[in-house]
Amino acid sequence: MLTNPTLDQMQALGLTGMAAAWRELTEQSSTNELSRDEWLGLMLDREVTLRADKRIRNRLASAKLRFAQACIEDIDFAAARGLDRRNTMALAQGQWLTAHEGLIITGHTGTGKSWLACAFGRQAARLGHSVLYVRVPRMFEDLALARLDGSFPRLIDKLTRVQLLILDDFGTHTLSDQQRFHLFEIVEERYQRKSTLITAQVPVASWHDLIADSTVADAILDRIVHNAHRITLRGESMRKQKSAPLLTGAENGEINQP
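The structure corresponding to this sequence follows.
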């Protein structure tokens, strides 16, 4: 007689996992042999698991990862691009996140920098960290517009508050005065407080020239580079390697015939 009211109370309290476990346990005859403590333990385990999964889903939804399905388990270590398995799996443990350190991934276009960054982003969410992915060119555009419509403080707060900020495609162009100021504001607020992951096609040695102003460049790089782990990807584009083979001369001739 108490089954339905109990389920209703669980649902009203938001105990969805416990309610689901209750229904399953009552449908299994073997559970009659379980003690009350064992019933309660199984129900609590289901509730804890359900809430943990929901938190991860929410963090991933807020992260807006470019490659939403990228994960550490799917990293291709067989590809010839200089990616060290031991170092990568050590980073996946997340100590650099709790220590508020950075991670820099560099390499030519197509070597998988953005995908790898998103895999680390998903892993950070699994470990309980809030994550936000942004492309640097788009971020600068949004910050410039935010200055005009009055939302600049709110956007800066969003970029500096998140526990892992992924800045993808840094260094696609030389920074303007305003962009240098915006970048300095972000890295200054995050320095030794939060972790930042940066991907770039150009090597770190060239970043000083991209920032262009030597004084500001020194200040920015001092906060980005010195406490950051680095991954340098090498080799040809993985997109090229995975693309369909080129047509032979004979096949091209057949296609081009009138």
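Residues 243-258 have pLDDT under 50 and may be disordered.
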